[in-house]
């Protein structure tokens, strides 16, 4: 069962909308819903990161609606567990950011030491500037701010065909 939901989490995270959509349609299956209900303590920690990440990352508004509905179901099933998963997700994102900062700091120290080497100018003049991406991830651990009311509201708004992707992004940014 764990491997099934790990695979579903990978499928939900797919940028291909049909893959994500088909995976999210499992929430309409009675047997899958009974598994989820009986084993929420095991399944929610597996599914939450993929679902939450895609509330911001997926480009297809149909997927957004399906994700909000899945999150809403999880929240209604076990609100306390949902909050725990939300906190855990925020902590993990914070640890990732700290790790990236530490890595960046280590590279800056290495570059500083390299510049002190007398042969550095000879070597550096023949090398292109190295690219190190900055951590500008827009998923700043906002998961702790997510509430049942917001999920319900966003799920309703996404279902209406009048909501554009820009309005959805605005709604999500307002949570920050």
From TrEMBL:
Gene Ontology MF, one: protein phosphatase activator activity
Biological process (GO), any one: signal transduction
Signal peptide range: none
Disordered: annotated segments: 118-139
Compositional bias of kind Polar residues: 118-128
Taxonomy, superkingdom: Eukaryota
One Gene Ontology term, aspect cellular component: nucleus
Stored SUPFAM superfamilies: ARM repeat
Pfam family membership, one: B56
Gene3D superfamilies the UniProt entry points to: Leucine-rich Repeat Variant (1.25.10.10)
InterPro entries assigned to the protein according to its UniProt record, in alphabetical order: ARM-like (IPR011989), ARM-type_fold (IPR016024), PP2A_B56 (IPR002554)
Protein family membership: Belongs to the phosphatase 2A regulatory subunit B56 family.
Record protein name field: Serine/threonine protein phosphatase 2A regulatory subunit
Originating species: Rotaria magnacalcarata
């Amino acid at each position: 069962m764990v491997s099934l939901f790990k695979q579903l989490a990978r499928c939900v995270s797919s940028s291909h909308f049909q893959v994500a959509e088909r995976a999210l349609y499992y929430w309409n299956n009675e047997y899958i819903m009974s598994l989820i209900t009986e084993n929420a303590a095991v399944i929610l920690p597996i599914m939450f990161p993929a679902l939450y990440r895609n509330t911001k990352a997926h480009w297809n508004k149909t997927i957004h609606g399906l994700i909000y509905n899945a999150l809403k179901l999880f929240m209604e099933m076990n609100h306390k567990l949902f909050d725990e998963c939300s906190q855990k997700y925020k902590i993990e994102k914070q640890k990732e950011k700290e790790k990236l900062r530490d890595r960046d700091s280590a590279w800056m120290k290495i570059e500083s030491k390299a510049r002190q080497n007398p042969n550095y100018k000879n070597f550096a003049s023949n090398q292109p500037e190295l690219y190190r991406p900055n951590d500008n991830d827009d998923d700043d651990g906002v998961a702790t701010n997510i509430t049942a009311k917001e999920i319900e509201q966003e799920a309703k708004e996404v279902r209406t065909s009048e909501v554009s992707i820009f309005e959805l992004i605005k709604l999500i940014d307002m949570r920050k």
